Amino acid sequence: MALTLKAMEYFTTARRHGNIAKAAVDMNIAASAISYPIDQVATEFDLTLWTRHRPRAIQANPRGREVARKCERRFEEYQNVLNEGAE
Questions:
Q1: Which stretches of the chain are DSSP H helices?
Q2: What is the C-alpha separation between 63 and 41, in angstroms, rounded?
Q3: What's the CA gap between 80 and 39, in Å, rounded?
Q4: pLDDT at site 1
Q5: What is the pLDDT of residues 2-54, one digit of tens each?
Q6: C-beta separation of 19 from 58 below 8 A
Q7: CA distances from 48 to 13, 34, 58, 65, 84 (A)
Q8: Contacts of 30 (CB under 8 A, 6+ apart)
Q9: Contacts of range 78-82, beta carbons closer than 8 Å, 24 or more positions apart
Q10: Is 21 in contact with 13 (CB distance < 8 Å)?
Q11: Interatomic CA distance for residues 18 and 21, integer angstroms
Q12: What whole-number distance in Å separates Cα of residue 41 and Cα of residue 44?
């Protein structure tokens, strides 16, 4: 299964907030809509990228932080392409 830009965005937002519910509020979507895509990121890399704490809290491990940085760069590049296309 291919890793989508949406899954990368959800994963990096949840990692940044450390909480799925807070990421959902930030993105104006339901928390349940984030859980599957962020699990998809871990499945795609066949790695454990975070530890789940309490309901909806996550903490990225070193691999998770590395993957998040790479995803953030790709997502920024994508946003730049969209912005350049709009100009």
A1: 5-17, 20-27, 32-45, 62-86
A2: 12
A3: 26
A4: 57
A5: 788 899 999 999 999 999 999 999 999 999 899 888 888 888 888 888 888 87
A6: yes
A7: 17, 17, 12, 11, 35
A8: 24
A9: 78/5
A10: no
A11: 9
A12: 5
